[in-house]
Amino acid sequence: MTNSQMTAAVVAGVVLLVVLAIAIALRRRRTRVLADKFGPEYGRTVEAAGKRSKAEAELEARTKRVEQLHIRDLGASERDRYSELWRVAQQHFVDNPAMAVAEADQLVTEVMRMRGYPMADFEQRAADISVSHPHLVTHYRAGHAIALNSAGLKASTEDLRQAMVHYRALFEELLGAPVKEPELITH
Fold first, then answer.
1. Which of 94, 120, 131, 155 could staple 150 via S-S, CB 3.0–4.6 A?
2. How confident is the model at residue 54 (pLDDT cuts 50, 70, 90)?
3. Same domain, 95 and 147
């Protein structure tokens, strides 16, 4: 091997190592960005996919899908109306917790629809919500699971209370304002 061939081989090896180092750095950056953006949903998606690269591709696809949607904020009158409907659902909890949870589930779905989220199956709605509200999608999944158990009479009153707490967290975020509490009458 001549000196020029040896030099070319060394340069090619160095270039290959630099390209490999850049690829590894970019992959780590991608992972860090997605993990930061999606929070607990990142780990859930990796576990469900069974492979980090597959999960990351799924999360990036979700982001692109939601970017194409026309998500809008609710107007003040819409927020007030839904806030009042939420208060009514909470009042129903005293007499019929299962019905209140069903109402909460329905209200969350309705607010999502009004904001512009497509109303495909639950998993698609949860995936869409995870892009803008990654820390709240866990509440949505937990509340929905309890609501399903409630329909089969497998949920205790405490479970149903927890479902309302989960739904309320997401509901308030979707609403864009805290639910108005009833004013106390004092004399």
1. 155
2. very high
3. yes
